[in-house]
Amino acid sequence: MRLTRVLRPIIAAGLMLLIYFGAVLLWPGEAVAANQINQVPQAANPADEQKYRETYEKATVLEVQNIEPPKTDNLDSEIVEQNIKVQVLTGQFTGKEINVVNNLSGAAGIDIDIKPGDQVVLFFSLKAEADGQESIESVHLADRVRSPALGWLLLLFTGLILIIGRVQGLKALLGLGATALGIYFVLLPGLMAGKNVLPLTIMVLVGVTMVTMVFVAGFTSKALAATLGTLGGLIIAGLLAYSFGELAHLSGLSTEEERMLLYIDNVKIDMQGLLFSGILIGAVGAIMDVAMSVASTISEVKKADPARKTIQLFDAGMNVGRDIMGTMANTLILAYTGSALPLMLLFIAYKMEPVRILNWEMIATEIVRALVGSIALFVCIPITALIAGWLSNRAKPAEVESVKNKLPLDWK
């Protein structure tokens, strides 16, 4: 038994690797050589191009000195200039004190207003010297340092999930790690290499789902039912995203970030497929949650009453699924609404007409994203309930009687 428990995560990791590598290496696409991705076009004089290097480093603000702007008739155009003394914290210039100029234009959201003791990110342009060393050609203030706050929040998240969830919390973290690895090391490189976006995304998400379910529930019928239910929801989501994306003429180019991808040298990405991929990724978490909840409920009902038939277990799963539907649909809709809240306020402020709002591609994209995810969530409930009910009744009669004999007298 102990050996089996030790082998479970190893086998799960093996399944994940097989699916991931199979998805990336075997699926056809317009392959791009690794050394060509993000390759910068050659300058007229390559030797001059190689003399410079750009990097970002952290620094602590030591002093801030305001420089009075020159007097002008138009006071609104005045820019406050700050001379900032910083000490570099990372990189080859660690410990070095540098003076940086910070311009404050009065524009909210653009200016970086800092004080002594703050940590900032510096942008260095470095020049290669004849002796092989690098000197600072220029340095600019790029942003504040925010990573420590994110680190503390991540530590709080990890601590709570381990304290409250214990072993199950650890399994949840392993599943989360598998998801991050799958997206970062498989999905993104596959997209950059020109693979077909939608099939690749489904393959990776299926692999992520399998590993997550195995970590959470082990090699059980409950995990199998939840995995198959999630797969059914993903297939439905993919078909709906593609069909209604075409009907609504969604191009996948509604945001600035999406349009920027068109100008990356030697990289060709199907932007419409990327849109559909994002819809699936945004929905799969909620689909997995619902599928596992339904499968787990049916498993517990079967333990409490081993005599229950498949149709009765299906009804029990559907009753729980119907209660989940309302809250989970709200979860998806509210998540997308929250991200678009500033945009919605702009609509009200500028009194935009509904015909303009509903036909704007950015809004239509978010509506399709929310509704497709919700429909896929609804569909996975009966799929999971039917599979979980059928699998629960695959146990041999002797095994059912054995479980029943272990129950309290008032449960028999």
Would you give an account of this structure?
By secondary structure, the protein is an alpha+beta fold. It has twelve helices and five strands. The protein has helices at 2-26, 46-49, 147-192, 197-217, 221-247, 256-260, 271-304, 310-339, 341-349, 354-358, 361-392, 397-405; strands at residues 52-67, 80-88, 97-104, 119-128, 134-144. A five-stranded antiparallel sheet has the order 3-2-1-4-5, with no helix packed on it. Strand 4 (119-128) and strand 5 form a beta hairpin. Helix 1 packs across helix 3 and helix 4 packs parallel to helix 7. The longest helix has 46 residues, at 147-192. It is elongated and about 85 Å long.
SSE topology sketch:
Elements: H1 2-26, H2 46-49, E1 52-67, E2 80-88, E3 97-104, E4 119-128, E5 134-144, H3 147-192, H4 197-217, H5 221-247, H6 256-260, H7 271-304, H8 310-339, H9 341-349, H10 354-358, H11 361-392, H12 397-405
Antiparallel strand pairs: 1-2, 1-4, 2-3, 4-5
Helix pairs in contact: 1-3, 1-4, 3-4, 4-5, 4-7, 5-7, 5-11, 7-8, 7-11, 8-11
Task: Summarize the model shown.
This protein is α+β, with helices and mostly antiparallel strands and 412 residues long.
Q: Largest sheet at a glance?
A: 5 strands, antiparallel
* Distance linking N and C termini: 29 Å
Mean pLDDT: 81
Uncertain ranges: 30-44, 397-404, 406-412
Task: Note the total helix count.
Answer: 12
Instruction: Give the ordered list of helices and strands.
Output: HHEEEEEHHHHHHHHHH
> How many β strands by DSSP?
5
Helix content: 55-70%
Which value, in Å, is the CA radius of gyration? Answer: 28 Å
Structural class: alpha+beta
Note the beta-strand portion. Answer: 5-15%
The largest sheet has its strands arranged as: 3-2-1-4-5
